[in-house]
Amino acid sequence: MNKRAVFHLVAYMTLVIGIAMVACAGISLAYREPLSVQLSLVYSGAIAIVCAGLVGFLTRGDINLSRRDGFGIVTFGWISATIFGALPYIFSGVIAHPVSAMFETMSGFTTTGASVMSDLEAIPRGIHFWRALTHWFGGMGVLVLCVAILPFLGVGGMQIYRAEMPGPSKDRLTPRIATTAKLLWGVYALLTFVEVLLLKFVGGMDWFDSFCHAFGTMATGGFSTRSASVGAYDSAIVDTIITVFMFLAGINFSLHYYALSGKPHRYFQDPEFRFYAIFLSCATLFITFNIWHADWGSLSRCFRDSAFTATSVITTTGFCTADFDQWPNASRLLLVVIMFIGGCAGSTGGGMKVVRVFIMFKKMVRELKLFMRPSAVIQMKLGGKPVEQEIISHIAAFFAIFMLIFAVGSFVMTFFTPNLETAATSVIATLGNIGPGLNAVGATQNYAAISPLGQGILTFFMLLGRLELYTVLILFLPSFWKK
Amino acid sequence: MNKRAVFHLVAYMTLVIGIAMVACAGISLAYREPLSVQLSLVYSGAIAIVCAGLVGFLTRGDINLSRRDGFGIVTFGWISATIFGALPYIFSGVIAHPVSAMFETMSGFTTTGASVMSDLEAIPRGIHFWRALTHWFGGMGVLVLCVAILPFLGVGGMQIYRAEMPGPSKDRLTPRIATTAKLLWGVYALLTFVEVLLLKFVGGMDWFDSFCHAFGTMATGGFSTRSASVGAYDSAIVDTIITVFMFLAGINFSLHYYALSGKPHRYFQDPEFRFYAIFLSCATLFITFNIWHADWGSLSRCFRDSAFTATSVITTTGFCTADFDQWPNASRLLLVVIMFIGGCAGSTGGGMKVVRVFIMFKKMVRELKLFMRPSAVIQMKLGGKPVEQEIISHIAAFFAIFMLIFAVGSFVMTFFTPNLETAATSVIATLGNIGPGLNAVGATQNYAAISPLGQGILTFFMLLGRLELYTVLILFLPSFWKK
Ligand SMILES: [K+]
Ligand SMILES: [K+]
């Protein structure tokens, strides 16, 4: 690994984080909050900026990156952002234990949205805004990672998206990444801004809440400014707006880019989008009737809660309007299954990604057909294009590794949680970057009851899941560190 | 499918079942049990014999089997045995509902050992012996299926065992299967007989219990004659004998054959055996210290219970000496993970099979290495021999299908069980042919509380798991039924 170049770029990312923290002090000032809040943000920002400047200066020089350096940049970038981003929580006294503060920050930057805080109404706005901003920055990072970087690094079969990336196609990798990033960030910022306006002028939220919730939605993050999450607004309009934007955030952003470029038909040509939309519709209908049958209110109310929750879970946002942990077991288990699926590739959503699940599903059908006629030649296709055996093999391995980490993680978490349901769902909720799980980490609960060591382990799962496992896992291979 | 030939062979299997039921009436007579018990067995046997004779006569003729017919024979063979084998329970009034009786019988023939009966001490010995015999016959069927048939049908990567099968190697398939079957059954009968003698003369059981428990052990079945299972004997010697024979029953029977032919070193040359032995030892040690730490008794007692339980679960036998459902969550979850692994290929054990898990594990390591160096050529080896990519792909598909069935099955079972733990473990306990799960289907519980429809669904999972999924699943493909 080219440590100098890697840390130079990490320093650059840390600088942005530092400036943003100082800007949050401005928000706090505007709301006339106590000076201590503003100082905690300014000090944190200053520390980040100074460290970033120092490291950036010491590592200055030409930047020539190899494929391997890519892993170092994303992993250490996220870790550095988390370390510096945790400072405002600690300095302001909002979160006492440093590991808990790191948990909250990693939860922000990985757009997980799992929280250790309970009384959110008591948290200063400056801190809230910083917390929401960690989501929004995290979402920006994820977009570049998933659409522009991972397909080239070839993480778990994501090679299939190499040709799909918007932007100039014949350039060298680095300028191409920059161009693609700008296009995607444009789409991301536009959608966020539209949602802010809708929440403010149609949903009736104030500007502050509109921004915080729009950041949480488009990043599929899930941090709210209210303890009761989106349910606190008790508004069908707010629920609908957020449901729609969560749905959009769970779609491949390349498709949004093409739609904005006048090619909206590309949504329906995309097999992953079709699977996502159909599966989500079926799950919503099932849950609607399941909870309606269990007397959770009128059919329209059940549909509203079901659509919101199913969308929130499949996109791995984690906003809540209903305590789905109280729903019948069939709905609860379906939600857990949905957690494994996650959003579309190239969205800000987490989980295993719809396209992988879809290809695994096709692989199973193909396997049974092949078993029936061993001599048959069956080519697997995705959206009319053949999928290489190699890619399918990568995806199968990704699936197995994901399941292994889930199993080992659940086993480890039995030592930190009261029961198996909590242990298993705390792992998938963090590994899949969802946020809430079931039982003691359910929709109305939080992660404060888990000991700092347990929180630290879950923090690692958030990073592992967000960086699609391999990017982090290969740092544990000794050969990675060899020159 | 050549229906005539398939049903001719199924009739032949049913005939054997019928004769065995009549023989059990003799056991009942010897113990001077009420005439009604003997009549229930004689009537059941007579019905099976008459039906088998009739179908056998109507379908007489040349037997020319295609690959596809193999699936029909095993699936319909198991189903027919279950239908006729359930009659004694119904006629004797031991089990009232016909679906429950089918559940108990399928549980016997698939060597699952899940039971709907609670007061086992009140059950007549004639019925007990029949129940134990369903295990023993099931085990014989499994041995032929797994060692001689599945490798040729190519179920989920089992092609790797084609060359491993004992017996003449250059013959045509049918006589080779017959020869292999006789060799394996010889080993199976010998081990069963040795266990009977040990249980009788060293363990101090009576002849009847010795036979029933030896049948249950060698078939990795798990039906006991006591409500408290093997725990009822409260004997360290009995526990040790059964632990050792469960361990043997979970090993590939080809290895036993080679050992008896004077090649015991082949055990240690077999990578699957090594993985099985090492993994089981580690799990036993972990559970020992975990339950000892939670004050479950002296270290030696904890070791005895842990070794028995871990062996019982990994071999998918399901005998119990301790209520492992009361153990700490870490041990409980580890046991559930072990349920997925199951016994070695070519043993009477169920689950996904050790070799598949081992190869998936190697695939994951290979994937990470490939990810590190995309241009590297990494050949996967098993016991020094290269494993084809095609086989690995089959195993990955098997793993995914197993997981999908587990997820869908757990979802369905939420409608029949009180909580998610019960729903999920009832599925893995039947799909993996283990028997007991956790919670409401735990070690001291049974399946009587599940409604007949739920029991029917679990009966299907037992068959699905026992016949390695595909054999049953392809019957649902319309193309299977075409000429
Ligand atoms: K989230
Ligand atoms: K069993």
From TrEMBL, chains A, B:
Chief location: membrane
InterPro entries linked: Cat_transpt, TrkH
Any one annotated GO CC term: plasma membrane
UniProt-listed PANTHER family: TRK SYSTEM POTASSIUM UPTAKE PROTEIN TRKG-RELATED
Membership in a protein family: Belongs to the TrkH potassium transport family.
Keyword Hydrolase: no
Cell location: Cell inner membrane
Residues annotated as binding K(+): 111-112, 221, 316-317, 433
Domain of life (superkingdom): Bacteria
GO terms of molecular function: metal ion binding; potassium:chloride symporter activity
Transmembrane segments: 9-31, 37-58, 70-91, 136-161, 182-202, 241-261, 273-292, 333-359, 391-416, 457-477
Listed name of the protein: Trk system potassium uptake protein TrkH
Keyword Cell division listed: no
Alphabetical keyword list: Cell inner membrane, Cell membrane, Ion transport, Membrane, Metal-binding, Potassium, Potassium transport, Transmembrane, Transmembrane helix, Transport
Membrane topology: Multi-pass membrane protein
